[in-house]
Design brief:
The chain has 461 residues and is an alpha/beta fold. The chain contains 15 helices and 21 strands.
């Protein structure tokens, strides 16, 4: 597959989809992005979520009708209802739609239809797929294309997580959670890494790897896979696809690597690349994007220039403020490998101390990986762990954030504190941080609100 500029979209609704679409659970990053895309394609879209949020407000600003809570009577006007994976079948709106004979789809089915209609290029992996997808958007724009995209976080430079472009290209992240990526029709793919996660769905790491292999084999076009990650390397070997990375045998090999506190620099096949975001993982992600761009026949120099303008993604090493000499950065990292990579990137700055403040995400993940979580904090000076963000899971007896704190004490030389209640973190940190410190708030739950809380408390101090 080789890409080139195409005639603009007609922005007419897709014939395979109803004109009027309602989304249940629209406040999540993935579902809000789909609402924006569908609206941009000309569909009449509405959405609901369990509680008010900034995401709902932003959708309303775009003319998408939203509400907090359930409104079963409103389903009578819908031609199709799409539910987030977090929504149970017992949801009142889903039950009302079913009773009225209205089609109810899950997210994978919607993505299956979208990717069957729009040529789709994607990034997948246990970590890095959101940033890599965002880098793909930057690279495509740098190469002269205007793609449609759906990304699991807001692209800071564009101020959105989704858009309808003028070229016949659809960039999205291929999410392995719940097997979603198995439903996609892909024309090109990059695989960042494959590690144990979502085992409550897959049952074993072998089954997880098998799913990645199936997705790769189903791609109708080029695939590039990171050679530096053992799980991804096994997928590459099983599918005979080319690799990228630092490894000597990678077809697309990173050379002349430079890591700074605010950027990464490297060369790939005689093309110099600078991305203004820190961390070795960023260099690997950018290399994968450039390798895939080359396989797709894009202008490589233009793609590299596009990535040089990359401003990042919300909740990915995002600066929340600098107050009284304290820097506060928020990151979505919620897996041991992600945490270790984020802390490593942070240590390249000249901080007095690095604080890693972590909220574990899901009881199942914490039970499975608490020992690995402990070791991931080894580069931090101060580690603060709070209790688990359930994300809809039922509590498991004996599984708390203290498991992670105990593992960090056993496996690192960091000073570790367990603060059981998330609401107490702001006051604890405000009392203990000092000028020159960096505070990293880490996790996929409401820990993201802590950065703003801490900034306010430090301003009042």
């Amino acid at each position: 597959m080789r890409l080139s500029a195409s005639p603009p979209h007609s922005c007419l609704p897709m014939a395979e989809l109803a004109d009027r679409i309602h989304i249940v659970g629209v406040g999540g990053s993935g579902m809000s992005a789909l609402a924006k895309l569908l609206s941009g394609l000309g569909h009449r879209v509405s959405g609901s979520d369990i509680r008010p949020s900034i995401a709902l407000e932003r959708l309303s600003d775009l003319g998408i009708k939203t509400w907090a809570g359930s409104s079963p009577d409103a389903m009578a006007d819908a031609g199709l209802v799409v539910a987030s994976s977090a929504i149970p079948d017992s949801d009142p709106e889903l039950r009302a739609a079913t009773a009225a004979g209205i089609a109810v789809w899950d997210r994978p089915r919607l993505l299956e239809v979208l990717t069957s209609r729009m040529p789709a290029v994607s990034a997948t992996g246990t970590h890095g797929k959101t940033t890599s997808s965002a880098l793909l958007v930057a690279a495509a724009r740098g190469a002269g294309l205007e793609p449609s995209f759906v990304v699991g976080g807001e692209l800071i430079g564009l101020g959105t997580n989704a858009a309808v472009g003028t070229d016949d290209l659809f960039i999205l992240e291929a999410d392995e959670a719940f097997g979603t990526f198995l439903s996609l029709h892909l024309r090109a793919l990059m695989v960042t890494n494959v590690e144990a996660d979502h085992l409550d769905h897959y049952g074993s790491t072998d089954a997880l790897e098998d799913a990645f292999v199936e997705v790769v084999r189903n791609v109708d076009g080029p695939v590039v896979i990171c050679a530096d990650d053992p799980g991804a390397r096994r997928v590459a070997q099983r599918t005979d696809r080319p690799t990228y990375g630092l490894s000597d045998d990678a077809r697309w090999r990173i050379a002349d690597l430079g890591l700074a506190s605010d950027a990464v620099r490297f060369s790939l096949m005689h093309t110099t690349v600078t991305v203004p975001r820190p961390g070795l993982h960023i260099a690997r992600n950018a290399a994968g994007v450039l390798a895939l761009a080359a396989e797709l026949g894009l202008d490589i120099e233009g793609a590299a220039a596009g990535m040089e303008q990359f401003r990042g993604v919300r909740r990915r090493f995002e600066l929340r403020g600098r107050v009284a000499g304290v820097t506060v950065i928020d990151d979505y990292a919620h897996h041991p490998t992600e945490i270790a990579a984020t802390i490593e990137a942070a240590t390249r700055g000249e901080w007095r101390r690095v604080w890693a403040v972590f909220q574990p995400h899901r009881y199942s993940r914490t039970k499975e990986l608490h020992r690995e979580f402990g070791a991931a904090f080894s580069a931090a000076d101060e580690v603060v762990v709070t209790d688990i963000y359930a994300a809809g899971e039922t509590p498991v007896p004996g599984v708390t954030g203290e498991l992670v704190a105990d593992a960090a004490r056993a496996r690192t030389s960091s000073h570790v504190t367990y603060v059981p209640h998330r609401a107490d973190l702001g006051d604890f940190l405000a009392q203990n941080v000092r000028p020159g410190d960096l505070v990293l708030t880490l996790g996929a739950g409401d820990i993201t609100l802590l950065g703003s809380e801490l900034v306010r408390l430090l301003e009042e101090r």
